[in-house]
Amino acid sequence: MWGAMLHGSPSEFWTENVSGGGIGWATNTIVVLLLIFICQLAIKTGFWFRFRWVAAPATHSYFNLKSPPVSLSLHSQLRISEIISDLDLKKLIDNLDEKLYDNGKWENVIDRRNSSLSYNAKCCKPKDGPLKYLSVTIFENCSAEMLRDFYQDNDYRKKWDKTLIEHEQLQVAESNGTEVGRTIKKFPLLTPREYILAWRVWEGKDRSFYCFTKECEHPLTPRQKKYVPVGFFRSGWRIRKVPGRNACEIKMMHQEDAGLNVEMAKLAFAKGIWSYVCKMENALRKYSAIYGPQPSSAVTAVTLMQKVPPGLDTINNTTDTGHPETAAASATCCQIACEGSGREFSRRPSNKLITNGLIFLGGVICMSRGHSDLGAKVAIAYILSKLTKRSVSSSQRRQA
């Protein structure tokens, strides 16, 4: 059977199964694809799950901080300086130092390097939140200040990051440097995502820098139906010099819920992140050559950054003192990730993905053999099972 499928002529592919009394392979395939497209379109436009985006974002205990609420009333005085507190910074430091345990197993995702760049990342699935990623990127021949300015220059990011459709600064709190902005990002074959975010930057000892970003609301940006709002976003990084060499590293924690399928998002990340990081490094080299360290008249979170509170800086320094071989440890972790990645990826794609693929393939094969009714039923069962799973997972997120 497989030989016939692989070596059949084009004419056989398009010929209708007249003798069997059914319609042909091509017609059935087009019908199934149209059904899938209509179902996906219905999901996006909200005919079936229109309450998914109207519902308030779920709260997660992952960042259960005793800080002021993130949502801001349109009729109250906007106090963006209270959106991000020192407790958020402490939580970020604990995450970067891997002191928090989310009862999730870490999976090595990628470990790649070249002569001027290295990158490794791992992820885990907490009990009550979206996927959490922890990555370390090391740039050779780069200062911490240059990398900090590059990461925070959103105007320059528009020139090299093709996923960024639009970005605008909304407001800056001069009291503590909290900045609020709106970003629109495109996702292949999906509706663009809208991010309303607030972030702060701190300077620590030994020329280290921290940034923490979280979702918020702002009266200048009412939600638009043509974008999917991202209701949960927590991300942060630490930039510092690599001891003993002319290089700097950025260690990043990232967690967001953009309404994507978890397994597909993991696969897309693993396949595309290295290319993205290489493109980012190329933009960084051009940035340092064109712009260089120069004063800016714009008021941003960087120009208004504050010092890390003494208590938190002491905790961080204690951790570093206890592990002076940070660079060597990072290299060891990379080697372990590299050795384990072969075993990890040998089991991928997951059983769920394989099962779904076989179900769909079975429907197509049945149709190709003339059993169009059976093939259509299998395809419809597959579609309904996927929609049911999405509905259940969406309800669970709202109840969390």
From TrEMBL:
<keyword id="KW-0812">Transmembrane</keyword>
<keyword id="KW-0472">Membrane</keyword>
<dbReference type="Pfam" id="PF01852">
    <property type="entry name" value="START"/>
</dbReference>
<dbReference type="GO" id="GO:0005737">
    <property type="term" value="C:cytoplasm"/>
</dbReference>
<protein>
    <recommendedName>
        <fullName>START domain-containing protein</fullName>
    </recommendedName>
</protein>
<feature type="domain" description="START">
    <location>
        <begin position="106"/>
        <end position="289"/>
    </location>
</feature>
<dbReference type="InterPro" id="IPR002913">
    <property type="entry name" value="START_lipid-bd_dom"/>
</dbReference>
<keyword id="KW-1133">Transmembrane helix</keyword>
<dbReference type="InterPro" id="IPR023393">
    <property type="entry name" value="START-like_dom_sf"/>
</dbReference>
<feature type="transmembrane region" description="Helical">
    <location>
        <begin position="23"/>
        <end position="43"/>
    </location>
</feature>
<dbReference type="InterPro" id="IPR051213">
    <property type="entry name" value="START_lipid_transfer"/>
</dbReference>
<dbReference type="GO" id="GO:0008289">
    <property type="term" value="F:lipid binding"/>
</dbReference>
